[in-house]
Design goal:
The complex is a heterodimer.
Chain A (H helix, E strand, L loop, with lengths): L10 E5 L3 E2 L5 E2 L2 E8 L9 E5 L28 E2 L4 E2 L4 E5 L14 E2 L4 E2 L9 H15 L4 E7 L1 H12 L4 E7 L7 H15 L17 H15 L2 H7 L18 H16 L2 H13 L10 H5 L5 E7 L7 H13 L4 E6 L13 H12 L4
Parallel strand pairs in A: 5-8, 5-11, 6-7, 11-12, 12-13, 13-14
Antiparallel strand pairs in A: 1-4, 2-3, 4-8, 9-10
Helix pairs in contact in A: 1-2, 3-4, 3-7, 4-6
Chain B lengths: L7 H9 L5 E5 L5 H10 L2 E6 L2 H9 L4 E3 L14 E7 L8 H11 E9 L4 H8 L24 H10 L2 E9 L10 H4 L2 E8 L3
Parallel strand pairs in B: 1-2, 1-4, 2-3, 4-5
Antiparallel strand pairs in B: 5-7, 6-7
Helix pairs in contact in B: 1-2
Classes of the chains: A alpha/beta, B alpha/beta.
């Protein structure tokens, strides 16, 4: 594969120092699973942290199976690699699975040392700031005092923003892509419906479904289907699926008939087959809670005033879940403070999902910005 | 609307800003003016640009560029946020002329506006010869010009008066970048203004 970081394998870091969470709960010990690409330079000044979104994980670039490259590609492989916009020839890139995740880091599927059984619903509700603290400890472990750049899209972008506020001296640049300073009521509403789909699934068992040998896949599938609708744009759906259906005459039943139905079912089934429902609950809740302006009387500029990093903020025109207007709030708060920020609004038909897709202008912007980051 | 380095109005504008000032450049293109002002005058700058190629070029230049449309005004920018708001060779491309001038003086203490003078004698001559002018300061053919407002020094000063804007300084340059003192509306190819609000 061209410009690929190649075959990669996850690493695991164990932490014994208890982590106090925003909720007040304490994680006595935890593991973080991560991958790295490129080489950390002698003064550790070329490190980049990639923060993942709701369904992401530590496997960001490269492939994990030599015989199955295409199917085991990292979720942002188009962005990261030798010669790519985030160039692993220059930078040392770290991808990490967040706490509460279901890809190897400590989460609801892990064993709760207090009970000897999986945490399940007892896993504490984690916030973006908790992830940032955990990521900071991983940085310590890797010998990284300061990230050259913290990068993220969607919920990942929110973590990048949080990094700039919580550890201003440990981050030189923040790339905040398809994000928002907090969720709107409409956005929280979508998350609530997704969670209700999971929680009301008869196989949910109050979040302790592992012990019953079942998984609330019906609820998780519905949650993902709903999510997918909101990540796409109306125009894109019209173009991709329109009103096309398997039978022009119509079956006059409720079986899958329109192509959009078939697509959503496929996506829902696929996702429910590997993702953990408790993790989905946790991730959506972290989104709901994210609001750095909360402790500054709702004043985003005041919350961002401590930041010392430079910012690149990127939004996509048809993203209605994290609309350009929300990104502009971040930009204007930074300008108000006299802080350095560049903002690009990418003309795209792909809705929120656009941040994961290759686009000439988008990639050129990220590449240009990254080339200006000294190491 | 990409700036080219060494533009005659850059030096005029540089003389009007002070080190440490916050400057907003509207239609900043590749950010050349902001870079120039940062290097020579030590200002802190931000730019607004709508054209994707301009935004990309500005990011390559390490400029604080914000992609956006001037026609919607300067929503999001706070009152009095900047010492100077610059509109360099861009006013003639903006449809909502009065709105943008008002907005500049809302978010900035002072506005700096430069524009090509359509009454420059060479432009008049071109029209007398039956052709729309193409020149150093009006580099486009009529069929591909981004310009949508065609006005002169006299027209602009008339508008300032109607809008009760105070002209604190004016520099007029010919097409070689030399300063013009007399008969500005006839001999001037480019006009640069420093504008403020009249006391209410």
């Amino acid at each position: 594969m061209k410009n690929s970081v190649g075959l990669v394998a996850a690493q695991r870091a164990h932490f014994d120092t208890p982590l106090e969470l925003r909720s007040g709960a304490v994680l006595p010990a935890y593991d973080l699973v991560y991958e790295t690409y490129g080489t950390l330079n002698a003064d550790a000044s070329n490190a980049i942290l990639i923060c993942h979104a709701l369904s992401g994980h530590h496997h960001v670039a490269g492939y994990t199976d030599e015989n199955n490259k295409a199917k085991t590609l990292g979720w942002w492989d188009n962005m990261i690699g030798p010669g790519k916009p985030i160039d692993t020839n220059r930078f040392f890139v770290v991808g990490v699975n967040n706490l509460g995740g279901c890809h190897g880091s400590t989460g609801p599927k892990s064993i709760n040392p207090a009970t000897g059984k999986p945490w399940g619903a007892d896993f504490p509700v984690v916030a973006a700031v908790d992830w940032v603290h955990a990521q900071a400890r991983l940085a310590d472990r890797l010998g990284i005092k300061q990230w050259a750049v913290v990068v993220g899209g969607s919920l990942g972008g929110m973590q990048a923003l949080r990094w700039s506020i919580t550890y201003p001296e440990r981050i030189r640049h923040a790339l905040v892509i398809a994000a928002a300073p907090n969720l709107t009521a409409e956005n929280i509403a979508f998350n609530d419906v997704a969670r209700q789909a999971i929680i009301t699934d008869p196989d949910f068992h109050g979040g302790h479904y592992y012990e019953h040998g079942v998984h609330p896949w019906r609820g998780l599938r519905l949650a993902r289907m709903l999510g997918h609708i909101t990540y796409l744009s109306d125009d894109q759906m019209a173009e991709k699926f329109g009103r096309r259906r398997s039978s022009e005459a119509g079956s006059f039943s409720f079986d899958v008939e329109f192509e959009i139905e078939s697509y959503l079912h496929y996506q829902g089934d696929k996702f429910a087959g590997f993702f953990d429902a408790n993790t989905y609950l946790l991730m959506t809740r972290a989104l709901d809670y994210f609001d750095p302006a909360r402790t500054a009387d709702g004043d985003l500029a005041a919350a961002l005033r401590v930041a010392r990093s430079r910012f690149l903020v990127v939004s996509f025109t048809t993203d209605w879940r994290f609309s350009p207007a929300r990104s502009r709030e971040i930009v204007h708060a930074l300008v108000h403070n006299g802080q350095s920020v560049a903002y690009a609004e990418i003309d795209s038909a792909h809705g929120h999902d656009a941040f994961l897709m290759e686009d000439e202008q988008y990639f050129a912007i990220v590449r240009a910005y990254m080339e200006g980051v000294p190491t | 609307m990409t700036h080219t380095l060494g533009r005659a109005d850059f030096d005029v504008i540089a003389a009007w800003v002070q080190p440490g000032e916050k400057v907003l450049d509207l239609g900043c293109g590749d950010g050349a003016l902001l870079q120039w002002l940062a290097e020579t005058r030590g200002i802190r700058g931000w730019g607004v640009e709508i054209d994707p190629a301009g935004v990309l070029a500005a990011i390559k230049n390490g400029v604080n560029v914000i992609q956006g449309d001037l026609e919607g005004g300067l929503a999001g920018f706070e009152d009095g946020a900047f010492d100077h708001v610059v509109l360099s060779r861009t006013l003639q491309t903006v449809r909502h002329t009065q709105k943008i001038l008002e907005e500049m003086l809302r978010v900035g203490r002072e506005a700096v506006v430069s524009f090509p003078n359509f009454a420059y004698w060479k432009n008049r001559q071109a029209v007398l010869n039956g052709r729309m002018p193409v020149s150093e300061d009006l580099p486009y053919e009529w069929f591909d010009t981004p310009n949508m407002r065609f006005f002169t020094i006299a027209d602009f000063e008339n508008l300032c008066e109607r809008m009760n804007l105070r002209i604190t300084e004016r520099r007029v340059l010919d097409d070689k970048g030399r300063q013009v003192e007399d008969e500005a509306n006839f001999l001037g190819s480019l006009a640069v203004y420093r504008l403020g609000r009249n006391p209410a």
